[in-house]
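User: Run a structure prediction on this.
Assistant: Running it now.
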Amino acid sequence: MTTTKAPATAMPNALTSGKLPKYSPLWLLAGAFALSIAIFAVVDAAGGEAFNWAGMAVLAVVLFCVLIWLISRLVEGGRKATDRLVTALVSSAFAIALVPLISVTYTVIVKGVARFDLSFFTESMRNVVGAGGGALHAIVGTLLITGMATLISVPIGLLTAIYLVEYGRGRLARGVTFFVDVMTGIPSIVAGLFAFALFALLFDDPGIRFGFGGAVALSVLMIPVVVRSSEEMLKLVPNELREAALALGVPKYLTVLKVVLPTSIAGIITGVMISIARVIGETAPLLIIAGFTASMNYNLFAERMMTLPVFVYNQYASQGTDAQAYLDRAWTGALTLILIVALLNIIARLVAKFLAPKGLR
């Protein structure tokens, strides 16, 4: 008995099958960068100028977009070529957006490590006129003022969002929505002027400066962000869950407390953290109402209180005889502020993960 052997099938060729190889975009990108580097190396050498890295990157991106569109059009057709071109443009835009973020982060880390030591976190600037000292008073002031602002803003903002989503109808709801939108665009210095004018009139003291006033100023900026973010999260809760609870005879307020809020708690916490990150770096309102000091102050309701943004501004703007010491403290203060925001976001993600319903974790 003889068996006939099946003819061997040739390996498919991506180019002949109307499709580019898998890693062709990466090879084209590398080729575009190599060509761009060669062009700028020749041009800059001929002109006797330093190598233009920014221009090289821009030319490489343009070359890549042209090459990926042209080659894809020849091999895959016009529709796929348009898709690859748009993908390349979107990816390039994303990379361009990352450039300033990476640059700022790198600069702050490199220049901030000079004073990132124990004394910076355990000492204040009291009686320090040159090198040394620290930002303990500013860190404590930032945590106290921002914490108080959060305690003021979160209940007001969350309750407002619940009203707009669950109860609000008619002119009052539209009016609240309108004023929330207006508050979203308020300049930060206006919030500081509002808090200063409010407490100056209440206490009849035109020179009043204290931490609680700074918390009120920050809460004016936080409330609309909390309202908007919480409102969107509450709207994402399926109406079927509300209807099921109401059909079982559960009162409206218990439906909100036991069904709606637990379902949306992860998004709400994320929105609260976004609002904290929005205000923790504000300088103008705190300069007006909280002032600045070189000493420790744990009392929000008495005397001036320093915060990290004001500390960074003051160290940079009011340099003494040893200017480098002031600059080092300013950069380390900025690095500390970034680390605080990053830590708060990590905590928010962990809290949201553990508080979210089981099926949404």
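Residues 119-360 form a domain with the MetI-like fold fold (CATH 1.10.3720.10).
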